[in-house]
Structures are given as C-alpha cells and as structure tokens.
From TrEMBL:
Protein name in the entry: 2-oxoglutarate dehydrogenase E1 component
GO cellular component, one term: oxoglutarate dehydrogenase complex
Quaternary structure annotation from Swiss-Prot or TrEMBL: Homodimer. Part of the 2-oxoglutarate dehydrogenase (OGDH) complex composed of E1 (2-oxoglutarate dehydrogenase), E2 (dihydrolipoamide succinyltransferase) and E3 (dihydrolipoamide dehydrogenase); the complex contains multiple copies of the three enzymatic components (E1, E2 and E3).
EC number: 1.2.4.2
Reported cofactor(s): thiamine diphosphate
Top-level taxonomy: Bacteria, Pseudomonadati, Pseudomonadota, Betaproteobacteria, Nitrosomonadales
Catalytic reaction annotation: N(6)-[(R)-lipoyl]-L-lysyl-[protein] + 2-oxoglutarate + H(+) = N(6)-[(R)-S(8)-succinyldihydrolipoyl]-L-lysyl-[protein] + CO2
Broad class of enzyme this protein falls into: oxidoreductase
Amino acid sequence: MSSVMKDFQDSSHLYGSNAPFVEDLYEQYLQDPASVSDAWRAQFDAWQGAGKDVPHSPVIAAFERLAKEGGSAPGVATSAGDGKDLKVLQYIRAHRVLGSRQSQLDPLKRMERDLVPELEFAYYGFTDADLQREFSPGSWQGQKGPMKFGDLVAAVKKTYCGTIGLEYMYISSNEQKRWIQKRFEGTLSTPSFTAEEKRGILERISSAETLERYLHTRYVGQKRFSGEGGESLIPALDTVIEDGGGMGVKEVVLGMAHRGRLNVLVNNLGKVPADLFSEFEGKHVHTKDSSGDVKYHQGFSSDIQTPGGTVHLTLAFNPSHLEIVNPVVEGSVRARQHRHGDHTGDKVLPVLIHGDAAFAGQGVVMETMALSQTRGYRTGGTVHLIVNNQIGFTTSDTRDARSSLYCTDIAKMIEAPVFHVNGDDPEAVVFVTKAALDFRMQFHKDVVIDIVCFRRLGHNEQDEPFVTQPLMYKRIAQHPGTRKLYADRLEAEGVIAAGHADELVTSTRAALDAGKPTNAKIRYGLKPALAVDWAPYLGIDWRHEAITAVPKPKLHQLAERLTTVPENFKVHPTVERILATRREMGEGKVALDWGMAENLAYASLVDTGNPVRLSGQDCGRGTFAHRHAVIHDQNREKWDSGVYVPLQNIRQGQANFVVIDSLLSEEAVLGFEYGYSTAQPFELVIWEGQFGDFANGAQVVIDQFIAAGESKWQRLCGLTMYLPHGYEGQGPEHSSARLERFLQLCAEHNIQVVVPSTAAQFFHMIRRQVIRPMRKPLIVMTPKSLLRKKEAASPLEDLATGTFQNVIPEVEKLNAKKVRRVVACSGKVYYDIVAERARRAIDDIAVVRIEQLYPFPHEEFAAEIARYPAAKSIVWCQEEPGNMGAWHRIQHYLQRHLRADQALSYAGRASSASPAVGYLALHNEQQKALVEQALTWDAKASQEAA
C-alpha cells in the first residue's frame, strides 16, 4: 500500500461514524466541483463514472463496499499528501457538534468553560505553520472555495464559540442541518441590525428593566416573581410576534409560568399598567361567581399591529404548576388552527416560555414534546423560549437541578434544534429568535431558544438569595444589568447619543406613573374575526332542558351508515359479527348494547353539524373492544388505506369526527384536550382513560384546570372524561376511577359527575352535553361488564323518546305502600342488587338509581322517597370501600330529604387503604356481602363499614 493510501485509510472517514465527513465533502463537490481539491475532484469524478450523480447512491455504494471489504480507495490523494484536508472537515464537524461547550454563554462568567480537546486544531495535528495554508472547507456554508486555515479557524470559532451556542447535529434530516449551517455559518452567527433596529431593541430592554424596578420600589415586598436579569426575553418575544405576523401568522398563543409574567403582560401583550397596579393594591373587580387568582397566574388577550397585519395574542392562564400549561396551550392552538382552516400550522403559532429547572425537571415537558409530531396533536411546531437563570428554585448548581449537561437536552428526544444564547447580548438573542422562528415556519417542528441569563432577586421578593447562593449573588450584585451593558455598547458604536438610554428609562417611568401602556403597537378594542362568542353559554342552569331524543327513521338511517363498509374491504370475522348484530339493533330487532348507543349518539351529532373529538389509549377499538369506531381491513396495513371510520362517512358535508389512539400519556393528553375544549365550545371533546384510575397521572390538570378553571379564571369548558369504573375483581389498579376525588372537587356547580347504567342513558347523556348550551366538564364513570350485559341494553325506542334521567325510579311494579326499605345506588351494583332481590322474591325493597351524583338531583330524589310512605330505612349501597366512592359526599344530600321517622345507613365494603382487593375469591366474597347488607340491613355492620 502506498504511503498516500495508508494516510487515507488511517484518517479515513469511510469507517464507522466518520463517513459523514466525506459525505459533506461530496455534497460540496456536487454543488461546485471546483470547491474541492483536484485529488478529491478526480476521485469523485471516477466514482460517478459517465453519468451525472444527482442522488448519492453510486458514491454511497462505493463507501459501503470499501467499509465492508476493509480496502483502500485507489487513486485517492490529498492536496498536500498529509491527510489534513480530511482533518479540516473533522475540525469543522467537531465545532458543529461540540462548539456550544466553549461558547460565551454565561453573563456572570462564574464557571470556566470546558476544555474540549476536539475544538483545538492541535488535536488534529495542525500547527501554527498550517494557518497560512489553504484547504477546501468541505460543506462549510461561509466562504466557498479554498480558505486559509487561519481564516477558517476564526470563522468557525466566531460561529460556534461566541455568545451563541448551537446544538443540532443530532437531527436526522440533512436538509434541516444544512439550513441551520447556512443560516449561522453563512453569517458567522453575527447579527447585522440597522441602527434603528438596535435602538428598538434597547427600548424594549429598557421598558422591561424599568417596569421591574418600578414595581420593586412601588410595591415593596409584594410577590411578583421578577424577571429582572432576563430582560432579553421581551425583545425576543416581540420578534416572534412581529416576524410571525409578517409571515402570515394570525394568532399567537403563549404559555408560561410566573417568573417574568407581569413583564410579558405589560410590555408584550399591552396590559394597561393601571390595571396591574389596581391588582397590586387589591382593587380587583369581584364577582359572586369568581374566586379569582393571583396576578402572576392570570391570562390575557390582546391584538398587536405587525408588518403583516394584526396578530391576536393570548396568554394562557396557568397555576403554579409551571410546565403544566404546555399541553393546554397546544390544545388551544390546535382548536384555533381548525377554525382558521390551518392544516399546516402557518396561521396559529404556539409559544412556550420555560424556566431552566422546570424544563429539565418536569415530565409534562417530555410528554408534550412527544405529542408534537403525532397526527392527533401536532400544531406545526412550537417555539420554546427558556429563561435560563441558572438557579431554578433553590438549587445552587446544576448537580442538583438535572442529570444532563444542558437543561435543554430533553429537546433532543424529538430532534429539535437548540440555540443557546447569552442574555447579555440582546442582539444575539433577537438574531437566534429570528432564526428559530424561520426554522419553525420552514420545517413545522419544535425549536428551542435557551436564553442564559440570571435572576436579580430571590425566588420571590420576600426571599433572600444570599442565604443559599452567596457567591453567585455577589456576582449578580456587581452586574450592571443587561440594559446598561447594551446601552454603553450602542453609545460606543455611535448608534445612540449620550443620555439617550436614560431618556428611555425616564419616559417609561412617566408612562408607568400615568398608568399608560408601554407598547405602542397594541391595538385596543379589536374583536378578531374568528373569535368564539361564549355569550350563549353563560349563565345556563344545569337543569336547562335539552331535547336529546332522535326520531326512529333517523336512527335507522344512521345505523345503516354505521354498519356499512366499502366493497372489497375485508373485515375481521369478530367485527363482522358485531356489525351484523348492530344492523339488527338499528332496525329495532335487538336491544342496543353500549357501543351501538354510543356510536349512534356521535353519528347524530356529526349529522347535525356538531364535531366530535375522542382521544385516549385504545379509543378507536375501545379498551374493552366495545366501540369499533375504526374498522381495519384484514388484507391491508392501516397506513395503506387499511382503515375505515363509519362515523366519518355518515353523509356529505357532515361535521368532523376524529378518534385518536393517543400515545401512553395521561397528563399531557388530558391537558391538550382541556386546552382544545376551552377554544371550541361547539365541539364534543372527550378524553377516555384506558382504566379510570389512569386519571391519577393527570391529577394536576383535573385539580387546577378542569375543576377550578371557571372559578379562578372564568374559563368555560365542556370537556368530557370517560373513566372506566366498576368492581370486577381486577385488583386495586383497575377497579376504581376514584369517584370520591371528583366528588370532593364538586362545588358551585363546577363539574358534572354521572354514572349511567343503561345504553340509552349513555346516548342521551352524550347528546345532552352538546345540545344543552351549558359548558361544564362532564365526568363519566363508564362501565366495563355493563358494556355487554343484556340487562343494560336498551330498546331503540328509548333513544327515540325521553331524555337523560338524573334519577331512575324503581322499574318493578311494587306496591309502594308496602315498601319498607329504599336502596339508593349508582352503577353496576344496581344489577347485582336487583338480581339477588329477584332470586329471593323480595317485594318490599325498592331500588333507586342516582345516575347524576353532581349537581345532585334533589327534586327527583325527594320525589322518589315520597313515593314510599312506609319505608323507614334508606340505604346507600356502593361497591367502593366506605372511605371512597360517593358515600361521604352523598350522605348529606340523602339525609336532607329523609323524614323524621327514617334512618339512613350504608351498605358496602369496609374502609380500606387500597381501592380494591387483589384476590378474586375475596372480591366475590365482599361483593356478595355488600349486596346481602343492602337487602338485610344490619345496623352494627353498617356502622362498622361506614
């Protein structure tokens, strides 16, 4: 082997992970053959052969063959015969991958930057003597053609090791990587703003800092979670909004936690300072229907004038649970995109603002990112802005805040590029923000901007940070502030005159003193064309009547569409039998099971113009194989037209029906559906838990948004939750949907909690949720065994007449005067009670089903009790343990309607730490005992169980 060939093989990029280097060089050759050395050009010419190579297949095949055979590449030579052409490519690639580790990102300059040997040219055998030599820079997107190595080193360092640090080489798409390289290498990561643009950035920074300091002196000691130290967020956010408007964005929906929120409200969204001051001074406008929330959790909406027209801004309400707002924003964006007919995400843009510790630490960030490119949840990419104050809440260094090098490393999971930037360089912040937005609009995927800054004050304004971070806060105390640094820089450049920066502060303070807006681009009093009018849904009482029955001819027609599949569509034999049976149900020949009643309800809604969105794990088929809303062709894959959705084929021009088998997430998916439903009141939005207790993983969404959102923030929401619930002997984790937790959250008619026991009830309940102009969350304890239980099936007539019954009276023709006991219950246990009553031929015990537990139907229940004048015993029977289920909440409602001669008792499982036992035999024994107790009540046993 010649020495040249040995040099080539020793440094070859054809082996292992080094192949991309030569591919870079080859792509450079394809763009301009003269841009590579004569030796490489001759080799690439030889590999191409006679034809022109547009795809890389001939060369890639040669690479693979050489790697497999372990041979050399005959005829390959380098410009100097020492292999350094290839090492130049290695040097460039090392900076593309690792350059951020030596970037000048920390405004406090606390930590020495990592020494990364791969970023030093000596690591590759270069010496100072090589700095004047010329080399081909391969796919470098700056200067084309041969460059002096010294010039290339300077360009690479300026691009990747300045105040901007880039991470993107893990992205699979070469197109996306090339785009980033062209954007940053082509400019050497150096902004080129006009003097006017620079003055605009300074004005925004000045407004941000002045507001923080104004509040600090005017409202001493009051919590506000200052954003001082991270002021560059304000011009960055302005850039997203204004540049987005220039690209055709019509709406921007923002989500953020409390840090810096007041500044964003005033300086970006245009909240009138006088209104903010009133909140600080406790002069809120109270209403009897609102509990309110603290000022740094409040949402807001406004309109801003941009180069492309008016953009509507919405800041989502958010509790102190930081990142939990992420999926809520995404859901709201998806709904708004539907209203705009925006299928690509070009008109409605989600923007999420994070803290560094929360972004790295909270699982909902990962769950939300995992949604970003899925069919049912994608929004065309999110712009993430991280206000990285390097401290989080109380952690003193990154060893306690995360296990990864950067707080942004979670974003690599979805191959989102990360642009780190020093917050003390506002021009660099705006520069990367522009690039990030352009990337998002080009590729419709998430992008992350990590603004490395600091936190001037403690976690809140009552916190003393020197107690736990003394050295860090000594540096912060000596820091002049981003505004001062930038103002001095512009004055030195001659962009502003001496004193101009102080004038900006003075004018902002004057506006604040007068309580006037600080953002001149806000347009007050506008109403967006596609804004939802919530007026028809306000003040509707839960007893509002709704006609939910559907005429029989229409039911026949809908059933026929639901049970018809296209020709040459091979249906699974089991599903084929189900469809055949459902045809008979639709014809009135067989009682309707749960799945058919449910599908008919959806069909009736989309037929009359009401969209339906159903999501959750296993929703298409149904966890218990009962729904079959999606039918699969047995001869084709589902991504090859192998699925058919009857509910999407009810009639021409029908409303949309979407069913989504979600990823294995509860918190993010439920948050997404909540956000969606708050922006789409005319659509039935449903989240189904695979099992009811899976909702435990989304408890923050339930507590902070679903149950309390209307009271705290006046946000109406018609979200429906299906939670399989019922004691079937499946153990602690698959029995209880934690009914007691939902009832504990009930107050002020905030949510509806329903336990339907028949197919017809389910049908009417679904339709009522849309047809009745009341938008309250609906929590449904859905059954498991009842899905196929004959006694729970309903005749077609029950769908064509009647409505949802909050209370179902005794169905047997008992002699009311002889009834000595009334058993009240909900759900599956009803069928166990009446079956045992029939077996024993008992005729003096009435069984009443309470189908809606909240708001409690007092009138209906009182009427049922009054039907039985001889009944001295009223029993509440439930399957759940005494400390769970409905008992502790419902007993007070039941007691209210008892006569003085009546006693209320409990029949059910004894109180327990676990929701259910894990042994089937013990389950059966307990079930039998509680039914026995309901029918042969024992005072002592009832007291012990309760």
